[in-house]
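Hi R.,

Here's the chain you asked about this morning:
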Amino acid sequence: MEPNELRAAIEAILFVTNEPVTLDELVDAFGEAERGAIVEQLDEIRRILESSIGGFMLEQTAGGWRLATRPEHEPTLKKYFARKGENRLSIAALETLAIIAYRQPVTAPEVSDLRGVNSTAVIRTLLERRMIRVAGRKNVVGSPFLYRTTRDFLVHFGLNDVRDLPRLEEFGDLVGESLNDDVVAAISSAQLTRPEDVQEITDDAEREVAEAEARAELASLDAAADEER
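And here is the predicted structure, written out as tokens:
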């Protein structure tokens, strides 16, 4: 194998591996005859990275080699991952989003019924984070609010349209978490809201009023549920 080709292949292995890669593991991948050349290319990779003004370096640790970020970038990385942690959605939120995404528009009681647990607090949080919106009211007793996903939902999961959603069984792969099998089964068997049962909100001003009312209603329902517990 040519030196440049070997170096590129080693870099690819280091890039996709979380744990340090030992010399013996690299030899297993390329053959014993390449042992000396592998050592030379590891030194070359380290030299190239050290001479550049890039964000990472080749680090020898735990008996192997790995690509690591430079120490001077630690403060920035801490801020970045702190923000990522703030934006991370809980399993309860992901289950609720799955129900709304695949059965929208849907009411809060319907979401709670499909999850098998009171979900008003989660819905309120998703409203505040603009992952869902009030779509209107359902033409049934009590005229409960109906909810749909938003553009922010699409952006969060890298979708262009709700029609780009994967099959329900693959939603866990999209969000990076496994959904409860019972919830998936409940969503699959749930009926869609009939168009004639939907009082859609189309006016922005009306939607703002409706969302304020929905938050207040959800907070009231959540408080009532707490008292029952």
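One quick note: The mean pLDDT is 87.

Cheers,
M.
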